[in-house]
Specification:
Radius of gyration: 18 Å
Order of helices and strands: EEEHEEHEHHHEHEHEEHH
Number of helices: 9
Number of domains: 2
CATH superfamily of the largest domain: P-loop containing nucleotide triphosphate hydrolases
CATH architecture of the largest domain: 3-Layer(aba) Sandwich
Helix content: 25-40%
Strand content: 15-25%
Distance between the termini: 34 Å
Length: 244
């Protein structure tokens, strides 16, 4: 579905992403892990067109998307959430998701009323229908994360990019959020590339892990295999004696 080949991104003298290559198959959940500053979010920003690749290529369903704009990438079926939720604070929950419906895949002749009905469906899916008229700024962190998910799904993605969907959630909320991600994969058939620091969650959820350090890929494979790699332990967990 997605092929990243020799992708590099520099900011002045800093190489944030260096010659990274890997691919994602349809219906996989791929965990993207690594220490802070490893280049994970930069890579997501390259995939959704926020940053432009300096060298290398990105192909989605066989088509080159390396130089497409964010709206074009959204229209072909790639959407994302953010580590720090980015709602429209002055809009209601249903208003924010309605914007996503309208600006996702191009829908000819869709009325605002139809978009609102569509948005209601996604709010119901994530358990926020009862908060549909609540301003985004008045939602809890968990509710904001569910709003991010609803808004991303409302664009009708084939590939969903999740950026630390569990950050700041308590264990009970994280368990509910994980169930919601699994439900989204099953119900909407989305493939998922997921940045996550909550290792218990991503080890349970991911089919494969890709590990970055200093902008480079240092390992890739099944979660259990990757997390037994001493280089990964040293880079990500601080060595064998690090606390779990």
């Amino acid at each position: 579905m997605l092929t990243i080949k020799n992708v590099t991104k520099r900011f002045g003298g800093l190489t944030a992403v260096n010659n990274i290559s890997f691919s994602i198959k349809e219906n996989e959940i791929i965990g993207l892990i690594g220490p802070n500053g490893a280049g994970k979010t930069t890579l997501l920003n390259l995939l959704c067109g926020i940053y432009k690749v300096d060298s290398g290529s990105i192909r989605f369903q066989g088509k080159e998307i390396t130089h497409l704009a964010p709206n074009q990438i959204c229209h072909i079926g790639i959407s994302r959430t953010y580590q720090i939720p980015q709602p429209f604070d002055a809009m209601t929950a249903i208003g924010g998701v309605t914007v996503a419906v309208i600006n996702g895949k191009k829908r000819e002749n869709m009325t605002l009323s139809d978009a609102g009905l569509n948005a209601s469906y996604f709010l119901e899916f994530v358990g926020l229908f009862g908060k549909r008229d609540t301003l985004a700024k008045d939602l809890t962190l968990y509710e904001l994360r569910m709003l991010e998910l609803a808004r991303a799904l409302a664009t009708s993605p084939k590939l969903l990019l999740l950026d630390e969907a569990m950050a700041g959630l308590n264990p009970g909320e994280a368990a509910k959020a994980l169930d919601m991600v699994w439900s989204a994969q099953e119900q909407f058939g989305v493939t998922i590339l997921w940045i996550e620091h909550v290792m218990k969650v991503i080890m349970k959820a991911a089919d494969r892990l890709v590990v970055l350090q200093y902008g480079e890929k240092i390992d890739e494979g099944k979660p259990e295999t990757v997390m037994s790699n001493e280089r990964v332990i040293e880079a990500y967990l601080g060595g064998k004696d690090a606390e779990n």
